[in-house]
Each structure stands twice: as C-alpha cells, then as structure tokens.
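Annex B.
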Amino acid sequence: MRDDSMNPVSRRGILLGTAALGGLSLAGCGGLLAKTTDIPVGGGKVYAERGIVVTQPTANDFKAFKAKCTHAGCAVSKVENGVIVCPCHGSTFSAVDGSGRNGPATKPLSPSTITVEGADIRVLE
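Cytochrome bc1 complex Rieske iron-sulfur subunit: predicted structure tokens.
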C-alpha cells in the first residue's frame, strides 16, 4: 500500500491542471493581429510577418486571406481600389472574397480565419 500523505498533489490533480493549461494555450492561439481602426473601409492591410491580408470591403465586414499569390507564391503587397495586389506578375484579387480579378493567377487567395472581438481582430490559425 502506498502512502500519499507526503505528496499533497494527486495524479488526478496533475491531470486536471494539465488539461486546464492546455485549454488556456488553445484559447490564446493566434492572438491579436490588428485593431478594426487599422483597416480602412473599402481597403485593407497586409501583415507580411503573419502572412495575412485583412480587408474591410464594407463597414464592419472584415475578411482575411493568406498573403501568398496563387500564381508563383509571391507575397501580395497592398490593397487598393477594392483589390489585393501582387507585385511580382501583376495578379490582382477581390478584397471581398479573394477571387482572381486579373491574371496570371487563376486560383483565389486562400481564406484565413479571424474573429472580431470589439475593436480587436484576432487570427485563429
């Protein structure tokens, strides 16, 4: 028979604590990306360090896409006049849904998952 009187932490306590910490780390995944005021209505902003472009086609409607052109993998550089622009070969994509507007890219930008919590835009992937 084992004497656990000298060990105030049980196996069950350790498992429950580990599960709780795992939940906290999952809740913090991705984190804060931007403030809603950073993204102009009708425009967007490229976050090159995160590989994401965030747009706001209409007021309070935020979209996010991978910032990698589907033609040759170059990073998109800006959002202007309702389109996301790739500087390498001139491809442009819709700021609304990431679809191709002008080639040579033939596939849309991949979507990214974000949430808007008050004034914070958080990336989930």
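The helical segments are 11-27. The chain has a mean pLDDT of 84. Further annotation is deferred to the next reporting cycle.
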